[in-house]
Amino acid sequence: MDNVIMWLQIWGANTNVGKTVISTGIVSQLLKRVAHCLYLKPVQTGYPPDDDAAFVQRHCKQLWKDDDRGVDQRLSCKKLFVFEQPLSAEEAARRQGEQVSDQQVMQAIWKEWENRHESAIIIETAGGVLSPLPSGTSQADGYRSLRLPVVLIGDGALGGISTTMTCYESLLLRGYDVPIIATIDQGYPNWEAWKRTIHEKDTLIIPFPPLPPKDIPLFSDWYLKPQVQQAFQSIVEHGNTYFTKRSKKWEEMEQNAPKLFWWPFTQHGSTLHPVIVDSAFGDNYQVAQKKSKGTHSRPPFFVFKSNEDSSSWHLLDAFDGVASWWTQGVGHAHIQLNKSMMKAAGRYGHVIFPQVIHQPAYQLSKELIETVGYPWANRAYYSDDGSTAIEIAIKMALRLYSTRHGKSQQQQQLEVLSFFGSYHGDTLGAMDCCPKGDYNELQSPWFQPKGVFIEPPRIGMQNGRWILDILNGNNNWFPTDSIANQVHWDSWDEMADWQRVDSEIGNMYQQYINKVLDSSSTIATLIIEPLIQGAGGMRLIDPCFQRILIQEAKKRGIPVIFDEVFSGIWRLGVLSSTHLLGVYPDIAAYAKLLTGGLLPMAVTLTTEEVFDAFKVFLRNRANRLLIV
Amino acid sequence: MDNVIMWLQIWGANTNVGKTVISTGIVSQLLKRVAHCLYLKPVQTGYPPDDDAAFVQRHCKQLWKDDDRGVDQRLSCKKLFVFEQPLSAEEAARRQGEQVSDQQVMQAIWKEWENRHESAIIIETAGGVLSPLPSGTSQADGYRSLRLPVVLIGDGALGGISTTMTCYESLLLRGYDVPIIATIDQGYPNWEAWKRTIHEKDTLIIPFPPLPPKDIPLFSDWYLKPQVQQAFQSIVEHGNTYFTKRSKKWEEMEQNAPKLFWWPFTQHGSTLHPVIVDSAFGDNYQVAQKKSKGTHSRPPFFVFKSNEDSSSWHLLDAFDGVASWWTQGVGHAHIQLNKSMMKAAGRYGHVIFPQVIHQPAYQLSKELIETVGYPWANRAYYSDDGSTAIEIAIKMALRLYSTRHGKSQQQQQLEVLSFFGSYHGDTLGAMDCCPKGDYNELQSPWFQPKGVFIEPPRIGMQNGRWILDILNGNNNWFPTDSIANQVHWDSWDEMADWQRVDSEIGNMYQQYINKVLDSSSTIATLIIEPLIQGAGGMRLIDPCFQRILIQEAKKRGIPVIFDEVFSGIWRLGVLSSTHLLGVYPDIAAYAKLLTGGLLPMAVTLTTEEVFDAFKVFLRNRANRLLIV
């Protein structure tokens, strides 16, 4: 066990439930097993009368007084931030006029760890689980990026069943593992109720015998009771088992997951590089690796060396550079997002939607129509992902076209107008909006592009200036490259200026677009990713070209779909790409940032004209729009 | 306000935080406004020394002693179940040898309400939010079906920031509204921290001045302090505002939601019957209605009569008869399901999946392959809903067929074999697996059935016997109806007997199936809803026919897809329809019960042979299976 770096964080169901007493026993027990131990009290209030680090040091020294392995050298007990008033850390800091940010607390902890690399670290929190750090952030939120395994000191008093289990739930909500709940017997068998109701069944729940009266300052006798020694031993062993299980699970997953999973967007015949994501918080994953790869902003959380093989597991921070494919807006495991989901799940679970009104759907629809959909949209159609939102959009658009042009939609060939390099999803209808390419060609024999596809002029950046990047494309319609070569802009505003519609290039765009639209009788819908083609390679399309195209389509009664799955809801720095383009679609699809990725959900926004095109004043089942 | 029926439930952040003191003040204040008031203490422990109902009655009488409107007639204070020991209700009941179920507690509350119809009802809980009922169920879970608005009595002591906010979160997790948090000042400004951190910003957070010393048995002087009177007035007014807002929101939603929503599976040209679902629990919705319609198992929760118009809003229980389209297995807002989701959300939020391993995905894949997919499946491909799971299944099956038969999938017309009346979803690829029908014909001009469709023999029930229901179909291949008329079975086992494959009817099936399979060169996949066609009208298909068909398809190397979105994961009383059919598919799709509807998720299970058909030992992006 000497190879294990054991981190445990001690939390209390309330203040004064025995956190420091139990910490002392755990530290003392750990000293039997590891060479060095670090006890940290990051925030100490009521100091100096209250000094938990000194308490732990004093008692451990007393408990180890007959041992010649010098506890003074083997144990460091430190407090990092101290406040005089015996109040919440926030209130105490305020009264003292001191400001300590959450980041400062975390950095101070990391500094201790980097300087020492002790084999075991115990961090004791202050007060209860949601008691504030000096900044006002609850401890459970402030320490979340560590996600250390929890020793929850349960409340042994009357009422302690509830105070302990509510703390447990608040820890669960923040994704903590709670392998151990310890408590001091105060005459109520609260732990029996916890055992019956606890959510994760491998938690060790362990009661300690009553403490000696308060007026005995050093109660070494209590610690030396066989029953107490036994209990501390169980805690340390269970902690060890927890860590062993955890790395064994990584071992098992690394071996077996590639045999069970069929990953999306992955060619399994190639060499795979699976990543074990142990948890995620903010912009980072916590990744478990057999050995440290590359550089990291800080050292591994914990290193586990198994006795059975020579490899060691590291737990590291890794930056989620693609924001989990653009779904993350406020970061992973955002507490407010999670609370909102929890409330909705607790209030409804899932309820069927046809002809049902409920508050979350109402509130969301109202806000969508007043924000991303403003001022053009007034109907919200919900589905599960970007692909389904596009399938719905296509059904809407083709029906609208048929209605506008007074034709039956069954009696004609209806196609989309779209760009090379576009991507709208992987269900068949979404695939059929795209030209042949990497993402679809071999995917299904049923794939059959149903569109007129053109190569749009792109915008690039060269030497800090926006340039027209027209040469790499298939733009044989663009007369010479000499004009393109002359064109550049010093700022976004200049490049995105509406005036450009009337420029020489704008006129060329106009001519080409008219030619495309007038030479086809099948174009029934324009579908574009506004401004940027995401999956197509983050290609910026000339907004001038898109503006003219949209206007010309609208003139001809061709419905316009914006696929805003990637670009919508602040991804481009604005609520919707309509704010950058200055033109509106008839239909737009949103997903990804809509839920911050927390659960699959998409919405297709549209106008009353589209909605009305589906109304039939007959009880005809077939005239419903059906995708769910 | 006399028209308002106000229900409030008083919860404590801990025991001994002043629940009864505050209840008394609220009741006393309510008596100024309503004719009759009922105070209920459903569970009283430590009785008779502790008798909260008597405390409320005594103090209200004292506070109203100068009033001639006879408080004795206007106020009923009742306890419903009493226990001697001053312990948790569970422990007290156990020691007393009494068993009181949650249902008994709820029925006793309803009985009081039915017999009285008071204008205001205050229900006081015992101990903390998660303190147990006599059964051991936490109060927050046991009282959930009422979902009464909460007055949370916050903990004013040191540590009370945490104990109160953890209780708040546990209430949120169960979907409660917490319009009011009250607390008694004990020298710590805990309420200021609550104000800063509370999740729902319209909660009234209100402190009361310190109580007089414990040894004053009747502290009327405290109640009569202007500051205290003011605070109780605020609580009652805020309660009133809460109820007003709530019914105004129903009013607003009823009016505006039909202008914002585009409901799925709804013909908006027909007369609509929107239902306002205020919450859901177990098998029931709580529905808000302008007036009571139909009969209900119990009276409305609360009736609100607005002064502004003559209509009144009722809140009623309504049975979710279709299990929210077969998504519900364990009922709405199931606490264990919600806790599991909460833990996952807190630990990860959402993380991208390609080449990522994490524990929930690993655990689920393992369990799926060991349960519903046993013994045939060994790969799990996740997506968002039944439609996407089917799109994936189709891509898999067509690729497998091509690989097995050594053909390029692009160079041939590949179709499915499927049944009339089948339904597989509403994305284009899923639609194309079905024949023309109500669910697709007018939906999209791109819809083009890609299959050979046959009418399967159905099984019906007549006079308690299973009969072959072949006459209603298009089965012109079935020689005479005389045979069919002779066929019936007394039990499911008899009807579903494998021996029937060799019966006279089985032979007829065999001939027909051979004819269908041998006469088409395009059939590349068999896709069926095993046993029951769900959306097609809950039609039971003769299992004997399906067995023969599956066996014959397999003989010819035609991959078999089971669409188990409806039938899978215990919906038919077994883990998978494979247990009833006794034959296995190559690919199967699951959704709905997979998450109990809690969030959209689907999985397509398949074999290693299918998986291998997608492996290319080149870095070729196009050979990935792409749907996500």
Radius of gyration of chain A: 31 Å
* Oligomeric state as shown: homodimer
The total strand number of chain A stands at 24
Structural class by helix and strand composition of chain A? alpha/beta
The averaged pLDDT of chain A comes out at 90
Low-confidence stretches of chain A: none
Largest sheet of chain A: 7 strands, parallel
> Considering the protein shown, what is the CATH homologous superfamily of the largest domain in chain A?
P-loop containing nucleotide triphosphate hydrolases
Distance between the termini of chain A: 54 Å
The level of helicity of chain A is 25-40%
Per CATH, which architecture of the largest domain in chain A?
3-Layer(aba) Sandwich
Query: Biggest chain pair contact, residues each?
Result: A-B, 167 and 167 residues
Adjacency order of strands in the biggest sheet of chain A: 3-2-4-1-5-6-7
The CATH topology of the largest domain in chain A is given as Rossmann fold
